[in-house]
Amino acid sequence: MTLVEAINHTLHDEMERDDRVLVFGQDVARNGGVFRATEGLLDRYGPKRVVDTPLSEGVIIGTAVGLAAEGFVPVPEIQFLGFSWQAFHQLAGQLARLRYRSDGRFDCPVTVRAPFGGGVRTPELHSEALEAQLVQCPGLKVVLPASAADAKGLLASAIRDPDPVMFLEPLKGYRLVKDDVPEGEHLVPLGKANVVRTGDDVVLIAWSAQVEVARKAAAVLADEHGLSAGVLDLRTLVPLDIEAIVAAVEHTGRAVVVSEAPHSAGFAAEVVATICEEAFYSLEAPVARVGGYDVPYPVGMLEESYVPDAARVVAAALRVCGEGA
Amino acid sequence: MSLDLELAAAETIYRVLSEDGSELVADPPAVSDDDLVAVMAEMVKARVANGRFFSLQRQGRAGTYAPIEGQEATVAGAVAALDPARDWVLPQYREPVALGRYGPEVLRTYALYQRGHPAGGHFPAPVRVFPVQISLAAQIPHALGLAWAMQLKGEAGVACVFFGDGASSEGDFYEAGNFAGVLGAPVLFLCVNNGWAISTPLPTQTAAVSFAAKAAAFGFPGVRVDGNDALAMVSVVGAARERAVTGGGPTLIEAVTYRMGPHTTADDPKRYQPPEERAGWEGRDPILRLRRHLEGRGLWSDERQAAAEAAAAAEIDAAWERAEAMTVSPDAFFDHVYAEPTPRMVTQRAELRARLGLEPEG
Predict the structure, then answer these.
(1) What is the ipTM of this complex?
(2) Residues B345 and B280 occupy one common structural domain
(3) In a 3-state reduction of DSSP, which class is residue B20?
């Protein structure tokens, strides 16, 4: 099953399981979503629970706050994460804080779905990796599946979570990522990283679409350089599985963090700082970062040199392992 | 003449009492004498609370306070037309001292808010009042969400959201107004036009003929009402509520009033407000206006006024004493960020408690 199919199936399952679940956003009902993530929901659950909204990101998030306070479980979609800047005051200032500013009166079980990430030649503001900005909004959880199975298990957990979750889907992976998805109830807890591949020499730490890049790099490192590289998929940045990061670094002594956001103050920096605080004396070499550059996300002809690829990750891993490059 | 929201023009101001309160210029709302007296008492209480919170801020005991002086009829009159068991109220920040219709918990909670206690954001269930909102207009989409929810559940309630003339320039107002029109949701958009957004006067805020006129773009009625006329507020909000709960959709209500005080205790309006403009509004005091009307009907008197002021002072003092007596642990900011704290927050809280010499959490 592809990743986007897994999301679609999970939305069907959760709407079936809980009639408080509402899906709304731009083009989600009649059109089934521009990527078909919400296909079939309107026919099955009707126009009261599956709603096309005006092109109005701020009010999509803002109404979710009020609906949640009245006991619904909203699952709004922001068509592309880059458009969420038009809702950022509602995300950071309101959705994230409903429980906090009401001193615990209101639950806020809202799951905001939004695709992001580069490599698909989209127009401007369709690809931005904004996860670190959302991590800086206490009250939000930030969840990024990398596989179809995780898309199902994490989305179901997110929808059932009493707190607001930013569920960020890998745009490039919607149809490229294909794996076995467990049938029936499948929940992946928020806050548990996934050891995608074990390795003894270096660990490649990634999330979302960069997990696949790290896997390819690990294969190259094994096949062409005789190095054993592990891959750790963080899955959720909030809550962060610090134990899994520490365990991986204590095992290998070497780490490369891969993300596609701009370099400075990206979430990779948080991972590196966490390693320094919690596992410094296990390190055999400085931790390396592979990611985007400190520029606005580029236009299509320039994407390839911006988004991390396996070759850059391999080069960084070789450097960290003292093998030159 | 009865009030028809569809016909009420966005340019003229609906009024029931003449400006001095001496005569009726339109049909009064169908409100019992007791309820009318309660509106009057609430306005008196709001005025007394206003003075108290101002003094408490000056004494360093309360935080920055946004006075309601001059706008008491707008708020007390509007909520008199609502059903506290069914209707949500979403304040901006001046309104809570005049929301007594929603129960004594409102003032008690607001006292905690002014004290800077985290429970000040928690109007306890089932009180249908949302926390005070500082981000201008951000509460308007929330009101739409609440109204949409009631619409989905088939409940006969409305969400009445207060915001200012300044907040009407924010995107949230336009986005929520537009979507509310599409949904036909039971929202009352209550724009409190008090003339000033801190130092920004109306001509800098909009070139529209009125704030109510903006409803035309949303596809539902917009009506201007004299916000210093408690009876007119009851009439207009009552008519808008009736329209909303019978499936007629939202209404934008512009209450024309005046901010007689500074923006907040941190503001000095002498820097920007023409004194003659403020003086022009002194003769239009909303409390004196309703008082004159009620006295004419034998429903109010000097004795009633004195009793209302004394009762108000007692209620506010009790609320404030309770607020000052409520303690809070210095690590309480970790509470209610999430239903369950993240592992990192657990570590951070333990470190803070150790630093402060507090016992580890059980």
Answers:
(1) 0.96
(2) no
(3) coil
